[in-house]
Design a protein that fits this description.
The complex is a heterodimer. Chain A has strands at 4-7, 10-13, 19-25, 31-37, 43-50, 56-57, 68-72, 75-80, 89-96, 102-104, 108-112. By secondary structure, chain A is an all-beta fold. In chain A, strands 2, 4, 5, 6, 9, 10 and 11 form a seven-stranded mixed β-sheet that branches. Chain A has a four-stranded antiparallel β-sheet with strand order 1-3-8-7, with no helix packed on it. Chain A starts with a strand and ends with a strand. Chain B is mostly beta strands. Chain B has strands spanning 3-7, 10-14, 19-26, 32-38, 44-50, 56-58, 64-68, 73-78, 87-94, 103-104, 108-113. In chain B, the strands form two sheets. In chain B, strands 2, 4, 5, 9, 10 and 11 form a six-stranded mixed β-sheet that branches. Chain B has a five-stranded antiparallel β-sheet with strand order 1-3-8-7-6, with no helix packed on it. The chains are: A mainly beta, B mainly beta. Chain A binds chain B through residues 6, 31, 41-43, 45, 48, 92, 94, 96, 99-107, 109, and chain B through 32, 34, 36, 41-46, 49, 51, 90, 94, 96, 100-102, 104-107.
Chain lengths: 113, 114
């Protein structure tokens, strides 16, 4: 299966700043996803990113807070904007493979002070 | 809408003992079911999947799961636990086809005692 890499792997940020997370797949994929995993919690889907169209956000997530880019079939970014301590989480990207299997990156561990 | 319930947020076993992690699903259509594992400070890795066909599916690292429609269950088992199995395990479901969104359970933390 394709390899997916994500960076940075972790970061510590000040409140009010923004962080952009990058996700790279080594082959072309149609659908990519961004998830949030809050401390001790399960994964929550933030949005689905298709190349050439606006990202589709889940309830409770908005573009102004989590802008997403999908410039081509191998790459996507998620920005966490105007961060607060409540944004401290693990952010994961994934892509959809055959049989609806999703393959995940290693995640970005974000701490906001 | 699909949903997944994982019974037990924390399971502790001795090395060499049977591992049983429970997952029940709710779906109005035949589900696709997955188990993922998350090792400390890592992303999610697919352990095994059920889509159609044989109801007993085998995955990596000696794990297997059985799809039981009558019980709406997809429990994960391993005959003999190893220290390296200590991790968080997530059950997930999607209805397949054009419905690609994964719904995850809350996870079960497995600890293995020497």
């Amino acid at each position: 299966s394709a390899v997916i890499s994500q960076k940075p792997s972790r970061d510590i940020c000040q409140r009010g700043t923004s962080l952009t997370i990058q996700c790279q797949v080594d082959s072309q994929v149609t659908m990519m996803f961004w998830y949030r995993q809050q401390p001790g919690q399960s994964l929550t889907l933030i949005a689905t990113a298709n190349q050439g169209s606006e990202a589709t956000y889940e309830s409770g997530f908005v573009i102004d807070k989590f802008p997403i880019s999908r410039p081509n079939l191998t790459f996507s970014t998620l920005t966490v904007s105007n961060m607060s301590p409540e944004d401290s989480s693990i952010y994961l990207c994934s892509f959809r493979g055959l049989e609806n299997i999703q393959y995940f990156g290693a995640g970005t561990r974000l701490s906001v002070l | 809408a699909q949903s997944v319930t994982q019974l037990g947020s924390h399971v502790s076993v001795s090395e060499g003992a049977l591992v049983l992690l429970r997952c029940n699903y709710s779906s109005s259509v035949p589900p696709y079911l997955f188990w993922y594992v998350q090792y400390p400070n890592q992303g999610l890795q697919l352990l095994l999947k059920y889509t159609t066909g044989a109801t007993l599916v085998k995955g990596i690292n000696g794990f297997e799961a059985e799809f039981k429609k009558s019980e709406t269950s997809f429990h994960l088992t391993k005959p003999s636990a190893h220290m390296s199995d200590a991790a968080e395990y997530f059950c997930a479901t999607t209805s397949g086809g054009s419905n690609y969104k994964l719904t995850f359970g809350k996870g079960t933390l497995l600890t293995v005692n020497p």
